[in-house]
């Protein structure tokens, strides 16, 4: 699979990566080269799964302001330990995405991510985690306003290698919840379409090792539960 193909399909891929709804699968390059839109170049789960996931997303309350937890301004730091791989050091920019950062930090403080996994891995693109269902269909008990330009909110953070951003559904800009992804290689096609909110300052070798060693089942990065790298713990530093 070439990087050119992955770039053309990046939007569709992550649009299916939702904090509370079903994932969309990548299709082959032929669909994109035929002129199909990136959203149309993806396919949903079964109808019953999609309907159930959609209901979950709609029912979750939408957070449109930063949480009152001290993480809605400034720059913050956290560490993420991945069993058998090592530790990621994270820098989080509330000055760019205050709703997203305050939500992520609250989930970290609540221990939400401890024991979850990276359930979706696409070498040369990204790794995705933060789903309590471990299959791309789960999330927290709330969703957040999408902080990116396509949703009317300025966000100049680019999806460079090491950037942390929120997954969402194709159906709604305001569907992100707990699922996040870390970009392995620069992916400018995601800029303005997803809520980038931080970056990995140390430990990108962990992301590389996951991409290089974890077996996947298809081009959408699906992984078997027993192969999913476990997030042992995430801790706030400041």
TrEMBL record:
Superkingdom: Bacteria
Catalytic reaction(s) noted: [protein]-peptidylproline (omega=180) = [protein]-peptidylproline (omega=0)
Domain called PPIase cyclophilin-type: residue spans: 86-236
Region named Disordered: 40-71
EC number: 5.2.1.8
Keywords: Isomerase, Rotamase, Signal
Keyword Isomerase on entry: yes
Family matches, as CDD domains: cyclophilin (cd00317)
Biased composition (Polar residues): 44-59
Keyword Transport: no
Molecular-function GO terms, alphabetical: isomerase activity
Family of this protein: Belongs to the cyclophilin-type PPIase family.
Cited function: PPIases accelerate the folding of proteins. It catalyzes the cis-trans isomerization of proline imidic peptide bonds in oligopeptides.
Protein name per the record: Peptidyl-prolyl cis-trans isomerase
Classification of source organism: Bacteria, Bacillati, Actinomycetota, Coriobacteriia, Coriobacteriales
């Amino acid at each position: 699979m070439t990087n050119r193909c992955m770039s053309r399909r990046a939007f569709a891929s992550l649009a299916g990566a939702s904090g509370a709804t079903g994932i969309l699968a990548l299709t082959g390059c032929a669909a994109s080269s035929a002129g199909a839109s990136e959203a149309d170049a993806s396919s949903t789960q079964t109808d019953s799964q999609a309907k159930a996931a959609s209901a979950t997303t709609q029912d979750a309350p939408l957070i449109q302001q930063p949480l009152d937890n001290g993480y809605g301004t400034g720059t913050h730091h956290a560490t993420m330990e991945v069993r058998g791989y090592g530790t990621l050091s994270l820098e989080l920019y509330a000055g760019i995405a205050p709703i997203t950062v305050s939500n992520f930090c609250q989930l970290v403080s609540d221990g939400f991510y401890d024991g979850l996994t990276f359930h979706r891995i696409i070498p040369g693109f990204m790794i995705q985690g933060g789903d309590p269902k471990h299959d791309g269909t789960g999330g927290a008990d709330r969703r957040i306003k999408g902080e990116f330009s396509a949703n009317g909110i300025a966000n100049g953070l680019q999806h460079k290698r090491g950037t942390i951003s929120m997954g969402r559904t194709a159906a709604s800009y305001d569907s992100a919840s707990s699922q996040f992804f870390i970009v392995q290689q620069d992916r400018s096609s995601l800029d303005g379409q997803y809520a980038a909110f931080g970056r990995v300052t140390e430990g990108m070798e962990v992301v590389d090792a996951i991409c290089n060693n974890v077996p996947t089942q298809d081009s959408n990065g699906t992984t078997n539960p027993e192969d999913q790298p476990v997030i042992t713990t995430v801790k706030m530093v400041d």
